[in-house]
Amino acid sequence: MTKITKKTSIEELGAIVCEKLKEHSIDIVLTGGAVVSIYSKNEYESYDLDFIVEGLGKKVDKAMNELGFTKEKGRPFSHSHTPYTVEFPAGPLMVGNVPVKNVATRKTKNGSFVLLPPTECVMDRLSAYFHFNDPQGLEQAVLVAKAQPIKLKRIKTWAKAEGAEDKLQNFIVRLKSN
Predict the structure, then answer these.
(1) Of 24, 63, 114, 168, which is least packed with CB atoms within 10 Å of its CB?
(2) Helices in 2-161 by DSSP H: which ranges?
(3) pLDDT bracket for residue 74 (50, 70, 90)
(4) Of all residues in the chain, what percent are helix, strand and coil, respectively (each to 5)?
(5) Whose CA is closest to 74, among 85, 84, 65, 62?
């Protein structure tokens, strides 16, 4: 088993958790701010990993306990050797009102893990901006879009379906600025 230390990066921890849950036949997808951290090379730094999984239960708790994580009621999983916490928000995996069909896989020295691809990561962050007026969501979407190749046409189509074409313009303006 790979040891978790204070030097374990968010990407490495993602792989460790994903590999452990695979041992328990649990498939998970990393979403949220941790994906932004990975794609932006920590220009935005998140300290929590959000994995979407269908059908939570005691299997997740058991796997996380095997890695040395503990969980107090109503709190995320924590580990004494890392500043990162791990949560499992309820599925299904969606960006706004659209189910996610495409996922990406990243390989690390600790194994591989599944996460939102860059385009879906941008959509996920824009969803927070569109629906909750979260300016941090807009900033995170811009960071990822500037650091990774994205499919802007797909984002525009999605934003129209979300009823957020006006707010999308703020993203496009920010994307074009330095």
Answers:
(1) 24
(2) 10-23, 33-39, 58-66, 118-132, 135-147, 152-161
(3) confident
(4) 45, 15, 40
(5) 85
